[in-house]
Amino acid sequence: VFTVSGELSDIQNGIEVMKSIINNNKIINISIVPSPDDQILEFLKK
């Protein structure tokens, strides 16, 4: 269950969901995930 603050943008929320999926070692169908732009890639590296 994700509690999302109204201050979070859709991109930030998407990143948090992606991180949670990765951290839980769940397999996702990569074809449904939009190609990440440089900003998202940099955020995920942190």
Describe the protein in words.
The protein is mainly α. The protein has one domain. The chain is built from two helices and no strands. The chain has helices spanning 10-23, 38-45. It is flat.
Helix-strand string: HH
How many β-strand runs? 0
**What proportion strand?**
under 5%
Gross morphology: flat
Number of helices: 2
Write the topology of this structure:
Blueprint: H1 10-23, H2 38-45
Core attributes:
46 residues; mainly alpha; flat; 2 helices
In a few lines, what is going on in this structure?
The protein has 46 residues and is mostly helical. Helix content is 48%, strand content 0%.
